[in-house]
Predict the 3D structure of the following.
Amino acid sequence: MTKVALTPLAQSLPASVPFVGPEAQERAQGFPFKARLGANESTFGPSPKAIAAMQKAASEVWMYGDPESHDLRQALAAHHQIAPENIMIGEGIDTLLGVLVRLYVTAGDAVVTSAGAYPTFNYHVAGFGGTLHTVPYKNDHEDPDALIAKAREVGAKLIYIANPDNPMGTWHNAARMQQMIDAVPAGCLLVLDEAYIELAPEGTAPAINTSADNVIRMRTFSKAHGMAGARVGYAIGAPDIIQGFNKVRNHFGMSRISQAGALAALRDDGWLGHIREEVSKSRERIIQIAAENGLQTLPSATNFVAIDCGRNGDFASRVLANLITAGVFVRMPFVAPQNRCIRISCGTAAQMDIFAAALPGALQAAHDNLG
Amino acid sequence: MTKVALTPLAQSLPASVPFVGPEAQERAQGFPFKARLGANESTFGPSPKAIAAMQKAASEVWMYGDPESHDLRQALAAHHQIAPENIMIGEGIDTLLGVLVRLYVTAGDAVVTSAGAYPTFNYHVAGFGGTLHTVPYKNDHEDPDALIAKAREVGAKLIYIANPDNPMGTWHNAARMQQMIDAVPAGCLLVLDEAYIELAPEGTAPAINTSADNVIRMRTFSKAHGMAGARVGYAIGAPDIIQGFNKVRNHFGMSRISQAGALAALRDDGWLGHIREEVSKSRERIIQIAAENGLQTLPSATNFVAIDCGRNGDFASRVLANLITAGVFVRMPFVAPQNRCIRISCGTAAQMDIFAAALPGALQAAHDNLG
């Protein structure tokens, strides 16, 4: 019997995904991590009010979650002083990026991003047959001018930029980002990923223009709000761009528990302030640990810090491997010259202590390996 | 400035989704439902052990869920006595159906289903540009022979059938389904939706053949397990069909809380037995309520019962509207002649009492409306 055939596009795709979880690494290596500092999760945890709301919702989970996420959208609209029609909720920025690419990108359409930027976006572009064009980082920052120029050159439908950036942690200020938005070519949409924006200095996010049809912004409860495992993100954009998601989104929508948790987290401003302080302290601690080992760090407006290991990608990947072997889960940028760095998520003092204890040996062993 | 253009396919799609939640109806009508019997949710709730597991996981939600859903896959494999490579976890059957259609259906590909069957499947087929071909129900059952014949006629890539069926509740036995599987044409895949299988009589599910490349089966924790709001479903199929999902699935995967809940639910056989008894009692009660009002019911192997209102779709839709007005959330099949029925989800004795109290008036008012 002849088997059913995948579509030509599906046939062309590898059966692999860009995100390998720490649990998969733990299973492969046969021991658990002592410190979990590789996925920019918030080891400080979510708001206790969010935990309580999720625990309450657990007993109501026989009901589907509201597929319109009405209450959460209303609350987010009030929070941002915009309309619910400017907001689409989804199962994390990742899912929203997938839906967005599906709506705008078909076979051969050009898309622009930075070499070494968020791989999940690239995964979606490939998954819908788009053609990815990249520009390099500039001084360890994403380069708005180069992204715009490339988009003009190739007639891109989408440009992706994260501000603050992952994996480097660097950022541009609001004026610079507004300048970029204003320069988006006709027929193109800027995807502005602001996953870490709550942890950035005041003046990093440009004002929200609720009618701008050349930018869509992505936010999440996974980072500052400490709810990565709940899968809640949202897009902010002009009403007709947002309305487009209703053409193809998973209309059974969101987990009921996740919706309840996000709503409670949003209302707990005090916890967010607490997290900002903890993240700030932890960034300082990472800088200090690096300095104690003779290493520089990159400036960060996020809940992680890139440590420059001072040599090339080979050396940094040895440091990384040694940290992993020591039970410290961390990651590194993929592309030279940014791959001279390792990326350390902020964490509790206890997590930082484990990292501080492991780093000197990891560096020494990497040096020794050089022969 | 010229706005970015949706793909031609996206432009062709309406900005609407097939599932409108009861909360949306409540907001529109301005009052809450007294009984929630319209979405085949399990008002009996999930296993208390599943609730406890989800409550524990809530405090760990700062961590991403394992994107491989390893523990749940292992447990499901053991439960079904198959390999983890035969199982793909997803955010409900709905999401899995969407990924499946994406993998196999592109512009103009033919797909076959029954007129009046699960609309979410049709939504995904439209969303990826497929062409839907339908056959009618036969005696209020899905018609395997007609589905197979239509698939041969149009060269379908996918055939969809639910066994037991939603919205009618009727079913075929395992031998009949195996006969259908054996008749699937070359180059075609049968999508066998078994969302309600745990509530059906022994002998409804054909044996799982872990190497069959002409069928993929869909299961869920939303129905018998009472976890609709957690969004956990799974597909069972040959390893290379399952592996295909890794080409395009949302690799950040599942809610951590949902994974924990599903794992605990799967292990609580006692609760599933309790639910089977409750559902069976409730089906009898719905039959009795119908009889008290002079109405027949259809046989059901699910957690809902279709009540034949004894006239046409217009009449049934009046009965439905009257029930809604009385605060009873119920739904009805979309297509004649099945739309002579209303579909009542099983529920607790208290929910059944509310329905029993509302039905006579709803019928009387519908009769009066006929003039």
Notes: Chain B has a mean pLDDT of 96.
